[in-house]
Amino acid sequence: MSKKIIVTGGAGYIGSHTVVELMLAGFEPVIIDDFRNSKPWIIDRIAELAGRYPLGHAIDCTNELEVLSVFRNYPDIFGVIHFAAYKAVGESVQKPTMYYQNNVGSMCAVLNAMKECGIENLVFSSSCTVYGEPETAEVTEATPVQKATSPYGDTKITCEKIIQFVKDSGQPLKATLLRYFNPIGAHPSARLGELPSGIPNNLVPYITQTAAGIRSQLTVYGNDYNTPDGTNVRDYIHVVDLAKAHVKATEWLLQQQGSVCEAFNLGTGKGSSVLEIIHNFEKVNGLKLNYAIGPRRAGDVEQIYAKPAKAEKMLNWKCEYTVAEALKHAWNWEKTL
Ligand code: UFG
């Protein structure tokens, strides 16, 4: 059987780590990425870690004709992992149409090309944001999907719905909806990691940039939540563990007979507060971080963490790295930039 799989957004943070793991597992990824949120040298780093260059095309994933021409170029493609999307919650509130055009537009382009070329297997990059502010901090895949609080969140819910509707329409489709919790860290080699553009929105890149002196101070967004230390609780997962889950999800799809659409929570099952992350970072890297408590950030969920039992059982996948290791790897990566 062919081992070729399209990876949209394959030069991005989670995408690049996944491409490495796919190649190490014997797959042949074909990247579609126009580098708007990455850098071409990331491909060299992938080659360094995987021992060979991946195939790739620098095109815009919302361009239906170009996407289709890439698909047609490889008649033996068996599936798609679709990462390509914008992901900044605040920016999505400012520029909603840009988010729908890119995130939903690329999803439709991919699904149309899959139909046209008779490709059935799809791994979709979703988010725990689909659960909104859940009633209990621990969420399973049966926890209700709630109305989104941002256009970004709504694009993830919308894409999940589109995939389900396409399956229901009778188009042969085997799909996994991978709901990521908070991906952090970098490749243990420090050769791959996150490249935030501008001021980071996310906690860990903000921490590493503060430690590096690029930012003067980290603000903790609120310490008056109903949590053990008053700060938000999240489920931080090492990006390499997350990448490996994509390989498992791909292998799982290949074992399925007939159409299927299955959601999986990808997290560690353990929550950490913002202060715990800060103190863990300081301890594991032996440094002090300049931080101050500030007001709450609009739209932040109080606490959420995964129950990853379904992915563990059905995909035969489990997190291997600790949060401390992820924080060490994040800092090792930052020091190379
Ligand atoms: N935080 C700070 N200071 C900062 C940045 C973040 O205190 O400078 C706090 C936030 O308030 C939050 C926690 O750190 O409590 C984590 O924040 P992130 O922005 O790193 O992550 P979020 O949980 O807000 O968002 C992540 C993804 C989104 C996704 C969301 C839910 O970045 O794409 O999870 O799935 F929508």
Determine the N-to-C terminus distance.
40 Å
Strand content: 15-25%
Q: How does the overall form come out from the CA principal axes?
A: globular
Helical fraction equals 25-40%
State the helix count.
11
Quickly give the structural class: alpha/beta
Question: How many beta-strand elements?
Answer: 15
Main sheet strand line-up = 3-2-1-4-5-7-12
Rounded to an integer in angstroms, the radius of gyration calculated over CA atoms is 19 Å
Helix/strand order: EHEHEHEHHEEHEEHEEEHEEHEEHH
Kindly list the characteristics that best describe this protein.
40% helix; binds uridine-5'-diphosphate-4-deoxy-4-fluoro-alpha-D-galactose; single chain; two-stranded parallel ribbon; seven-stranded parallel β-sheet; 337 residues; globular; alpha/beta; Rossmann fold
Q: What does this molecule look like?
A:
This protein is α/β, with parallel strands linked by helices and 337 residues long. The protein has a domain at 4-184 and 236-267: NAD(P)-binding Rossmann-like Domain (Rossmann fold). The protein has eleven helices and 15 strands. The chain has helices at 13-24, 41-50, 64-73, 89-94, 96-117, 151-168, 203-211, 239-255, 274-285, 309-314, 323-334, and strands at 4-8, 28-32, 55-57, 77-82, 121-127, 138-139, 174-180, 182-184, 218-221, 233-234, 236-238, 260-266, 272-273, 291-294, 305-306. The strands form five sheets. The chain has a seven-stranded parallel β-sheet, with helices on both faces. Helix 2 (41-50) links the parallel strand 2 (28-32) and strand 3 (55-57). Helix 1 runs parallel beside helix 2 (41-50), helix 1 crosses helix 8 and helix 5 runs parallel beside helix 6 (151-168). The radius of gyration is 19 Å and the shape is globular. The termini are far apart. The protein binds uridine-5'-diphosphate-4-deoxy-4-fluoro-alpha-D-galactose. Uridine-5'-diphosphate-4-deoxy-4-fluoro-alpha-D-galactose is lined by residues 87, 89, 127-129, 153, 182, 201-203, 206, 218-221, 232, 234, 274, 297, 300. Uridine-5'-diphosphate-4-deoxy-4-fluoro-alpha-D-galactose binds at residues 87, 89, 127-129, 153, 182, 201-203, 206, 218-221, 232, 234, 274, 297, 300.
